[in-house]
Each structure stands twice: as structure tokens, then as C-alpha cells.
């Protein structure tokens, strides 16, 4: 993925609302005879796939295009540390244009529909133009979005923890609650602004509650008018245990750490209703709060629904080779696909939505795309989980690398060591390490940037879930383009 892949436009044309001005590769590339590989999504799965294709494909073997709304790959596991201000947002946004020698054409936009029969992906560019991208092979890696339920007020009043903008927004929001409480003389308003609710006791929610609680605990020292006792964090989950994937003992350790820090953990509880100034729990409690962070799981990107193909709990049903049955040249992986988990050896088991699976699947899909291109047999994906690391901030962590249960500093060393080594570039590694050292030496800082002040802040605003077409709209747009051609 390099700066060589500049974009230029062909002749603009309009057909039934579809702009057929496909963004053409520059420098006289012969795109007529070369197969076109289209990768959708520049996350863990998409970037691994593209990198391997770039390394292993001869330049004249195929053209590779990457559709992505952002110019970076987001290292999601460290997002709670951005929300709590330990890391700057830029340190976990890893540039896609890091080197001159890569040749992938990057199409800045989001895929909003795929017509499998016509082999066309409809893309909304970042300037809101709709373009049709024709492909011979497509790799679908658009990841997932926050899973919501039909709870009154939820989608209007909850924040997610899935994008860089959400993490930066939450940081400002939490600090602004302290500022507003400090300025207020109304005891009820003060109490409401200083209560925070996180829903979801998986690793994302637990890390988020833990890291943000540390931030408010440190910040309140700088607000002499505020009673630290008023600050209250709630972490709730409908499940009976925190992070069940860690096992009972480590889950309990994490719960004890949070309890010791004053986080109120309620299990077997969800929310009934969410408003701008209060949240009602299913156990009847009404918590006055202006902060509801919703991390109760993820669901495949809405792009998958536009295919009209079989899904498993919303994820695209694919074979162990990550192919879509009945459609040559269609591959899917990562959070958006239900890839059979062969390492588990259980009928119907699918790989959990984790970064380690997405990265490894990305490499395997690249190999399979090349095998398909060269008429060679495809290989199934098989990988045993390496474990989980959970950074609760400061010296607190729980980890289970290769089945070994760790707590405290050893767990923290493993967690940070793992994430640090998994960052793709030396620049990102240096930024993250510098931020960690600075935080350890100088402590937290409590700057509210105001970059996103007064901007709409609902889940759909951050995750663009309302931008997709229906399968019928996709077909109509593609058919319109075909009619328009001489
Ligand atoms: C807070 C948090 C903490 C986590 N911690 C861990 C952890 O500790 N360990 C672990 O293994 N996993 C962790 N995960 C899960 C892990 O991040 C995901 O499983 C992983 O990112 C999935 O990779 P992916 O490539 O499928 O999707 P992503 O990495 O999410 O990438 C999807 C990409 O597609 C882009 N995209 C979305 N829609 C479109 C579209 N329509 N068109 C084009 N591009 C699109 C997105 O912008 C994104 O760049 C965590 C997740 C979160 C949210």
C-alpha cells in the first residue's frame, strides 16, 4: 500500500443515479487483461491480506484495490487506552501508506453493497460519490459494528467503543462531566454527572470501565470542589461472570480488582431503558447518569446483509477455506465471517471475533486468492487460540497466554508486550511505548480537546450503519450501469 497508487478519474458519467466513473489506476497500468482483486476493509484481516498479496504476487499477475473509509488500520485492542488518555489517538492509527514500495490502489470510501452475480461492489467514496467497482476476486473484511438490542432510548443515548472517533469523544465527554459537575451548585446534577455506566463484561467493556475509572480517579484530585466519593462507575452484564473466555478464576480476579477500585459490578443485569439523564437497570435500579457506554458485543458489518447470502448469527457463512459456497472468487474473513473453527474439532464451531484470528485468516485468504488465481488447490484455515490479555490500567491486568493464568505485573508485562509486538510499524511501536513511559512518569493529563464538541454522537453517527443499500437497491444500481453501456 504505497504512494505509487495515486488515483485519477476517468470520464464522469451518470446512469440511474450511479456514477460509472470508476477510479482508474494511474501510470498506464494494463487493467484489461489482469485479474482484479478487491479487498474491502483495512482492519486486521484486510491489511494482513493485502500485505501478503503485495509480497507474493508478481506485479503483472493481478491488480489489487483496497476499499477503506480511513487511511489507517486501527489497533482496536488499545482503544480503551485512547479513551482514558493513556495513548494519543494517532499512536494506534497505523498508516496504510507507510512505504513507497507497495503498489495497492487505495479507494477512499466504504462499500455499501455487493452484487455477487454481476461481480460488482458499490462504493460510497469519502466525497459521497457512488462508484461501481468491478472485480474478479473479492475479499470481504469489513469487520463488525456494535451490537444493539431493541431497548428504548439505547441507540440515541449510548456511546460505543469501536472507532477512534468514539474513543476520543468518550474521553472528552468524561472529562466534561467532571468540569460540569465542578461548576454546578445543584447536588442532583453533580451526582448524575459523576456516575458512569458501562454495559458489557467482555474484555472490551471491562477494560473500558477499568481504564476510565482510573482516569476519573486521578482527575478528581484536580477538582477540589468535588467530593471523590460521588464518582461511581457501574459495570453491568447479563452474563453470570465477567469475561467467561478467561475462565472462572481469572474472571473473578478481574472482578476483585475492579471492586477494590470502587467499580460496582452487577452481573445478571442489563438495562431496560436509556435516557439522556438516567438509565434504568433490569433489576429496577434507576441510575442518574449522562454517560452510558455500550460494549455488549458486536455484529457483522451491515455490508454482509447486502449480499443476500446465508449467514450464521449475522456473519457470512463461509467454508474453512473462507470461500462463499456457490460463488467463485468470493472470500470473507475476520469479524464479518463465520469461519469454521477446525482447531476446536466441534461440529458447527466458528472462530470467535478476535484480532488474532482476523490477522491469521488474512494471511491464509491471501494464499487462497493466489491459489485460485493460479489454478492450485485452496487450503483450510486452522489455528489454535493463543489466549487472551486484559489490561486493566496501571499495574493491574489478567492474562491467559497459552493457557497459563497470570495476574498483576506479570500479566501486565505479557499484555503490553503482546500488544506492542503486534503493532505493525516501528513508528506505532515508538509512539505507544513513549506514551506508556510518559504516562508512567508524568501521570494522566486531563485535557478536553473539544474537537468533536456539539457534533452528533449516536452509534450510527460514529459507525455509519445507515449508509448501506438493500440487496434490491444494489442490483438496481448495477443493472442501471449495464444498461447505460453501449
Ligand atoms: C475495545 C476492543 C478491544 C478489543 N480487544 C481485543 C483483544 O485484546 N484481543 C483480540 O484478539 N481482539 C480484540 N478485539 C477484537 C478485535 O479488534 C477484532 O476481532 C478485530 O479487529 C477484527 O478484525 P477485522 O479485520 O475483521 O475487523 P476490523 O479490524 O474492525 O477492521 C474492519 C475494517 O473495515 C473497515 N470497514 C468497515 N465497514 C466498511 C465498509 N463498508 N467498506 C470498507 N471498509 C469498511 C473499518 O473501517 C475497518 O478498518 C477488541 C475489540 C474492541 C472493540
From TrEMBL:
Q: Which domain of life is it from?
A: Bacteria
Q: Which organism is it from?
A: Streptomyces rameus
**Which UniProt keywords are given for this protein, alphabetically ordered?**
FAD, Flavoprotein, NAD, Oxidoreductase
The UniProt entry's sequence similarity note says: Belongs to the NADH dehydrogenase family.
Query: Is RNA-binding there in the keyword field?
Result: no
Task: Indicate the segments forming the FAD/NAD(P)-binding domain, all copies.
Answer: 36-362
Region Disordered, annotated ranges:
1-27
Residues folding into a coiled coil are none
Record InterPro entries: FAD/NAD-bd_sf (IPR036188), FAD/NAD-binding_dom (IPR023753), NDH-2 (IPR045024)
> What is the protein named?
NAD(P)/FAD-dependent oxidoreductase
| Pfam families named in the record | Pyr_redox_2 (PF07992)
Amino acid at each position: 500500500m504505497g504512494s505509487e497508487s495515486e488515483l485519477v478519474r476517468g470520464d464522469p458519467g451518470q446512469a440511474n443515479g450511479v456514477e460509472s466513473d470508476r477510479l482508474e489506476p494511474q501510470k498506464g497500468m494494463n487493467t484489461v487483461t489482469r485479474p482484479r482483486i478487491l479487498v474491502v476493509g483495512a482492519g486486521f484481516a484486510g491489511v494482513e491480506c493485502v500485505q501478503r498479496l503485495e509480497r507474493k504476487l508478481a506485479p503483472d499477475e493481478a491488480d489489487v484495490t483496497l476499499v477503506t473509509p480511513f487511511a489507517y488500520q486501527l489497533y482496536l485492542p488499545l482503544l480503551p487506552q485512547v479513551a482514558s488518555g493513556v495513548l494519543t489517538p494517532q499512536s494506534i492509527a497505523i498508516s496504510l501508506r507507510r512505504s513507497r514500495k507497495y503498489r495497492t490502489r487505495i479507494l477512499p470510501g466504504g462499500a455499501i453493497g455487493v452484487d455477487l452475480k454481476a461481480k460488482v461492489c458499490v462504493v460510497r467514496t469519502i466525497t459521497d460519490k457512488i462508484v461501481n467497482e468491478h472485480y474478479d476476486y473479492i475479499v470481504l473484511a469489513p469487520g463488525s459494528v456494535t451490537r444493539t438490542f431493541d431497548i428504548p432510548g439505547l441507540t440515541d443515548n449510548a456511546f460505543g467503543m469501536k472507532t477512534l472517533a468514539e474513543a476520543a469523544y468518550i474521553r472528552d465527554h468524561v472529562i466534561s462531566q467532571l468540569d460540569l459537575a465542578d461548576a454546578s451548585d445543584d447536588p442532583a446534577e453533580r451526582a448524575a454527572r459523576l456516575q458512569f455506566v458501562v454495559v458489557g463484561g467482555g474484555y472490551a467493556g471491562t477494560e473500558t470501565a477499568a481504564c476510565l475509572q482510573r482516569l476519573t480517579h486521578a482527575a478528581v484530585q484536580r477538582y477540589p470542589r468535588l467530593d471523590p466519593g460521588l464518582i461511581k462507575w457501574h459495570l453491568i452484564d447479563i452474563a453470570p461472570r465477567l469475561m467467561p473466555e478467561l475462565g472462572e478464576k481469572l474472571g473473578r480476579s478481574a472482578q476483585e480488582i475492579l471492586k477494590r477500585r470502587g467499580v460496582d459490578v452487577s452481573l445478571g443485569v442489563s438495562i431496560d431503558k436509556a435516557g439522556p439523564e438516567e438509565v434504568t437497570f433490569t433489576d429496577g435500579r434507576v441510575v442518574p447518569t449522562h454517560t452510558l457506554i455500550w460494549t455488549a458485543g458486536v455484529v457483522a458489518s451491515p455490508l454482509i446483509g447486502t449480499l443476500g447470502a446465508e449467514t450464521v448469527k449475522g456473519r457470512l457463512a463461509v467454508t474453512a477455506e473462507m470461500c462463499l459456497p456457490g460463488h467463485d472468487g468470493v472470500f470473507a474473513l475476520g469479524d464479518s465471517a463465520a469461519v469454521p473453527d477446525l482447531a476446536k474439532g466441534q461440529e458447527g464451531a466458528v472462530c470467535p471475533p478476535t484480532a488474532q484470528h482476523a490477522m491469521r485468516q488474512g494471511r491464509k485468504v491471501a494464499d487462497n486468492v493466489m491459489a485460485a488465481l493460479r489454478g492450485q488447490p485452496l487450503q483450510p484455515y486452522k489455528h489454535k487460540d493463543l489466549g487472551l490479555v486484559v489490561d486493566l490500567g496501571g499495574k493491574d491486568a489478567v492474562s491467559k497466554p497459552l493457557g497459563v493464568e497470570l495476574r498483576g505485573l506479570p500479566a501486565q508485562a505479557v499484555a503490553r508486550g503482546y500488544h506492542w509486538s503486534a503493532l505493525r510499524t516501528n513508528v506505532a511501536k515508538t509512539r505507544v511505548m513513549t506514551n506508556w513511559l510518559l504516562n508512567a512518569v508524568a501521570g494522566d493529563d486531563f485535557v478536553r480537546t473539544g474537537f468533536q464538541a456539539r457534533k452528533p454522537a449516536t452509534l450510527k453517527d460514529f459507525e455509519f450503519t445507515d449508509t448501506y443499500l438493500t440487496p434490491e437497491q444494489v442490483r438496481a444500481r448495477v443493472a442501471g450501469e449495464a444498461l447505460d453501456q453501449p
